[in-house]
Structure formats: structure tokens, C-alpha cells
Amino acid sequence: AQSVAQPEDQVNVAEGNPLTVKCTYSVSGNPYLFWYVQYPNRGLQFLLKYITGDNLVKGSYGFEAEFNKSQTSFHLKKPSALVSDSALYFCAGPSGEAAGNKLTFGGGTRVLVKP
Amino acid sequence: SAVISQKPSRDICQRGTSLTIQCQVDSQVTMMFWYRQQPGQSLTLIATANQGSEATYESGFVIDKFPISRPNLTFSTLTVSNMSPEDSSIYLCSARTFNTGELFFGEGSRLTVL
């Protein structure tokens, strides 16, 4: 079965410190992986994606993610967190035979950045 | 990018009634999907809305309960039929663009069934 997992329900970090949100995947073939952010009472916003190429992917709002095939991980990172980064973050990957067609989402990680 | 508009944004409904959620995209997209999300939790795919044909439903979701239409490339509707309190949730429309293939989401429709 193809799936993504987010092992942490919540991550707390002080403003200005590095932020990491973890994601591991289990997909066949070449994985297509995505990160989305959801602010309270809003829809999901696209942050970044990995399809092929460089393992380090840069996205919106200063976020980046590193694709690690040996560890089957795609962790989201930000060097210096802001209070405004407090939100719900979702990792997503392909669901089904057509890679990148439908997406399946991880359980989500709530990020709380404290001033 | 694509801007996705959903309406209603929220509604309170009585048990046994039905509600139709509309989704309009501002550009032509390849695929449209409907998801369900309990507040603060993950998303569950309900179905893929196929243009001009019957939607493709995921396991646990059926057409009689969640009829879906997609008459053209930019518009889709999801109906939640014969509602019960268990249907209280956020329903999200999403669409994949032609050029980048990225998946964009509407703001969601928050449904409460009494």
C-alpha cells in the first residue's frame, strides 16, 4: 500500500529556532511528495513538491524539504521559525497506480511557534 | 496557480435533508477531487470528479450518499444526501492544474448536521 506518515502530532519550537516537521513514505516506483499547510479555518495551501531532480526542494514562505531515498523520508524544514508559521502541516504522496494522480495525506502535524 | 471557490462556506442542516456544495475553479484543470476533513485531522478522499461521466468513489463512499457532478472543466458539485450528525465535517474541493500538476484546494465547506 502506498502511504505517507507523520510521526509527530505536534511540534513546539521557539521563534527563531529551526523547525523540522517529519514525514516518511512508503510508495512504489518514483515517489511524488508534497507538503501543504493549513491555517485555522482555511483550506490547504501548497508549500512545495518533490518529483525528480535535486533532493533539496525549496518552497514557499522560506520552507524547504529534503528527499532522502535511503531513509524514505521527506522532512520539511525552516531555518528560523516565525510565530506566523503556527499551523497544521500535511505531507502527501501518490495514492494509486498513477503517480501524482490522487493524493493520500499524512495524519498532520500541528506546529506551535512560541514567541 | 488556481483559485478555487466553494459555497456555502458553512451551513447548519437538519437530519435527513440534503445539501449541495458547489466548487468553481478560475482556470481549466485536469482533475477535480472531493475530500472530507474532521477539524484538525487529516483528509480523506471521497471521490474523483470526472468530467461528463460518473465520479470514481473511494472505498467507503457511495454515489447514493455523495452524488457528484462535473459538467465542465471548471465546475463540480458534491451533494451530501440524507444527512446524519456523522456527516458533520469539512468538505474540501481540490483541483489539479494542467501546467504544473499541483493540487490546489478550496477554503472548504463546514457542515454541521443537527
In short:
The complex is a heterodimer of chains A (115) and B (114). By secondary structure, chain A is mainly β.
Indicate the topology.
The complex is a heterodimer of chains A (115) and B (114).
Chain A: E1 3-5, E2 10-14, E3 19-21, E4 24-26, E5 33-38, E6 44-50, E7 56-58, E8 64-68, E9 73-78, E10 87-95, E11 102-105, E12 109-114
Parallel strand pairs in A: 2-12
Antiparallel strand pairs in A: 1-4, 3-9, 5-6, 5-10, 7-8, 8-9, 10-11, 10-12
Chain B: E1 4-7, E2 10-13, E3 19-25, E4 29-37, E5 43-49, E6 56-57, E7 68-72, E8 75-80, E9 89-97, E10 103-105, E11 109-113
Parallel strand pairs in B: 2-11
Antiparallel strand pairs in B: 1-3, 3-8, 4-5, 4-9, 5-6, 7-8, 9-10, 9-11
Structure keywords:
heterodimer; A: 115 residues; mainly beta; Immunoglobulin-like; six-stranded mixed sheet; four-stranded antiparallel sheet; B: 114 residues; seven-stranded mixed sheet; 11 strands; globular
Beta strand count of chain A: 12
- State the helicity of chain B in percent bands: under 10%
Strand content of chain B: over 45%
Oligomeric organization of the protein chains: heterodimer
Identify the CATH class of chain A. Mainly Beta
CATH architecture classification name of chain B: Sandwich
Number of domains of chain A: 1
Strand content of chain A: over 45%
Radius of gyration of chain B: 13 Å
List unreliable stretches of 5+ residues of chain A. none
What are the secondary-structure elements of chain A, in order, as H or E? EEEEEEEEEEEE
Q: Distance between termini of chain A?
A: 41 Å
What is the level-2 CATH architecture name of chain A? Sandwich
Q: Could you say what the CATH topology of chain A is called? A: Immunoglobulin-like
Shape of chain A: globular
**Radius of gyration of chain A, in angstroms, nearest whole number:** 13 Å
